[in-house]
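May I ask for an example protein's residues together with how it folds?

___
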Amino acid sequence: MRYLTVHTDKRISKIGLGTWQFGSKKWAYGERYASEEARAIVRRAIELGVTLFDTAEIYGAGNSERILGSALGECRDSAFIATKVFPVIPAALAVSQRAAASARRLGVSHLDLYQVHWPNPLIRDRTLMHGMRTLQQSGRVGEVGVSNYSVERWQAAEEALGGRVLTNQVEYSLVARSPEQGLIPFAESRERVIIAFSPLAQGFLSGNYHGSSRPTDPLRVASPRFSPENVERTTELIRVLREIGRAHRANAAQIALAWTIRRPCVVAIPGASSVAQLESNVAAVEIDLADDEYKALNEVSAQFCARRSSAQSGRPLAAMKHLVKCGLLLAGTVREDQRLKLKSSRWLRERA
């Protein structure tokens, strides 16, 4: 395993594990995955040197946090656990209460990285970051992060916090390269970190869905990314990934991951549907792409990304729709906490 050089209390692995799929019905992995396979994936990740584990309060109505915390077990203290608050009510007290709920579900007394899951388009971050600062000062939270923030809003969040906002979690892959326009240069210049989610574009870059094979899970079936037309547009990219993969005795997904983490400030958090996939993802950290290979991948992906960028419109409206949708998911998390009689006040008192 390789690790970031940025100073933190615990090392951050260049390949982490994303756990959106833990406890989520959208991925259609079933009960056995949640009760057995997820635990095996986490334990194997620890054995392979993975330290970064990413989750969120809205994933599976809190079940992702519960499954991850249980799977980590006695290894919780050595893992760099990152979770997220969804800023429906970005008030300082609400942030503290949501942090306490996440900590209880994870079974920890301290959150290594607490991230704002999405920028609230209606409200700036001053009161929210005041809550984050209070959590840091009390020892409940180590590092603060954001997700899906622009450079300008990232900088404003740091000003409001009065300290570094270490990470910005954004989609970054060979078919989603917009972070290169500002976010990555900013992170490199300030010793900040980009956490790349969907580094394989939800399996799109594995090549498994090119040809006659088509996704069957609800999430991919509903995604325009996996439409036959879109899949056809990346035929050449998949060809180049496979060609470079042969030179490294690697598959297309491993080459795509190696490309994503080649920048010193970038870590990737692919998910895993099995222990074998987890092992394959982690092995990508050992692949050193030559300059000409890196250039070839940049060139073949550029046209796809240019078309994707020009097709994106109505972003403020999309942000509002996303906020409402995730607000409903958060309500589901709160209801599940109430059903399980999960209390957070004790955690707040213990850390005071």
The longest helix spans residues 315-339. Confidence is low (pLDDT under 50) at residues 309-314. Strands lie at 17-18, 52-54, 80-85, 111-116, 141-147, 167-171, 193-197, 266-268.
